[in-house]
Amino acid sequence: MEQVRLNKFLSQANVGSRRKCDELVGRGFVEINGKVVRDPWVRVHPGEDTVSFLGQNLTRTHSFTYILLNKPSGYIVSSFDPRGRKTVMDLIGSVKERVFPVGRLDYMTEGLLILTNDGEMSLRLTHPRFGIEKCYHVTVSGRVTREKLGSLITPVEFPDGKRSNVVRAKLVSETKDESKIELVLKEGWKHEVRRICEANGLKVLSLRRVSFGPLTLGNLMTGAFRFLTSREVHSLEKAAGITRKN
């Protein structure tokens, strides 16, 4: 009889990423056969056990949806905000499938955001172990020297234990008052790009993510979204090391 971990079952039922499912289970929102469980690693028998989330019985699905959104500033990357602020879900209201954001972008950060109901894909795209590159364009005050670009690549130890890891840094354009630089990273902790810039004496004026792994924004307008093509999904699976049967 098939057994799967609860967090994997929940992810396959489109509840959220595995990390998010771990949190939801820990908060007591999930029941198995009518009993609340708080261990996301407990095993369930699909088709035999009844798993429910907030009172709604769940079933697994292997039909995944992948969306690319050009996030504007002023939106929360979350399914819900208790403070009533706008979330990225407001921008994809016409999508019937339940999807969730892959990783995060700050409230004022713009650019490429992936949303999906593929929990395995979400985990692999965001976990540092898989080293998926993300590229950002950062506009900062003043001019950025070659020495400053070099210092951006030099790892910085932060008081909270975080450590910067910029793979590449280059100057994209400049005026007498500001510069646009390109930073490529393989991690994605909170406020990472802004903190790295500030640690190097750079004031961030705007921040946009322009690529995520093999995906780029292209000419997608700010606030607009589109579904990924099958070729793009395959390229993501290849980058994440996922092999699936057709």
Shape: elongated
Q: SSE order, as H and E?
A: EHHEEEEEEEEHEHEEHEEEH
Q: What percent of residues are in strands?
A: 25-35%
Summarize the main sheet: 9 strands, mixed
The chain-level structural class is: alpha+beta
Give the number of DSSP strands.
Answer: 15
Helix percent band: 10-25%
The whole-number mean of residue pLDDT values reads: 90
Please mark out the parts with pLDDT under 50 across 5 or more consecutive residues, or reply none. none
Number of helices: 6
Separation of termini?
A: 24 Å
Question: Can you describe what's shown?
Answer:
- With 246 residues, the chain is of the alpha+beta class.
- 21% of the residues lie in helices and 28% in strands.
- It has six helices and 15 strands.
- It has helices at residues 6-12, 18-26, 119-126, 146-153, 192-199, 230-240; strands at residues 4-5, 30-32, 35-36, 43-44, 51-53, 56-57, 66-71, 100-101, 110-116, 134-141, 166-174, 178-185, 204-212, 215-216, 225-227.
- The strands form three sheets. Strands 7, 8, 9, 10, 11, 12, 13, 14 and 15 form a nine-stranded mixed sheet that branches. A four-stranded antiparallel sheet has the order 3-2-5-6, with no helix packed on it. The chain has a two-stranded antiparallel ribbon with strand order 1-4.
- A hairpin with a 2-residue loop joins strand 5 (51-53) and strand 6 (56-57).
- Helix 1 (6-12) crosses helix 2.
